[in-house]
Amino acid sequence: MASNEYGVVLAVGPDGVGAGALGVATSEAARRGTGLELVHVVHSLVAPADAGQIQSIDQAMGRVGRVVLTEAAAKARAVLGDQVPVSTELRYGPVAATLTERAAEADLVVLERRDAGTVERILTMSVSSRVAAHAPAAVVVVPRGWEPAPEELRITVGVDLPEDAWCQVAPAAAYARETGRPLVVLHAVWLAEPYQDLAFMDDGRLRWMRDATDEIQRSLKPCLDAGDTAPRLDVRWQRPSDALVEATGTSSVVVLGRRSPRLLGGAHLGPVTRAVLQHAAGPVMVVDRT
């Protein structure tokens, strides 16, 4: 739970924030009954030797930050009215680390992924990926230009380990219950092409997919609350990153779990999650596994 009255945080960039990310943040703040805080972080990438120049640049960038925060807050208040409070905060420091620090007092952080040139995209995705990996709260990354569908779409949760399905599904199941949306559990099975003929003689591929389905069902059955509708299982033969990116185009949100920091040298996000964050057509929520 948030440690202050502003449980939803929306990161606002130097060129403002798009309607998609703003819509996710305002709807979540209203649904949760918590305040919305818009945060802009000033971080100069160039540090001239002269201290006066540094101060001048910081002041100029701060003015830009205050302008975009004021504009975004006006849009948020127009949507929310008096439902929940809206505030703004201008911070200085490394962008990802500063947003991650702010997330310690929040329930949800909303970030926008902008389409940009190669170098800028690397920098932008570094912020999104680092915050998604390390924030002690759920993080939603929304592609700029995304618009919600007119109808209520499903929530899709990705599962990588069938035998550990409930640890990955539980946060998404709770979110689906709270929002009243149907839940789909997606598990993609894949082997590199050179191995497929050797590994899947006869009906081996279908048997592997069937076994994965049975394992997921066994993991989920004792954990669903009484009265819960069992999620629909979607087990398919496809590269996991491709399957999940495809699902972002037909889901209200795709939910992915952080990995244990004890795995692979402390990596909180695996390569599949990073790929989905970079190429998703719709919102992606990254959460802790239970």
UniProtKB/TrEMBL annotation:
Please report the stretch or stretches of sequence annotated as the UspA domain.
Answer: 9-143, 154-287
Family per similarity comment: Belongs to the universal stress protein A family.
**Name this polypeptide is given:** UspA domain-containing protein
- Organism the protein comes from: Nocardioides agri
What lineage, starting at the top, does this entry show?
Answer: Bacteria, Bacillati, Actinomycetota, Actinomycetes, Propionibacteriales
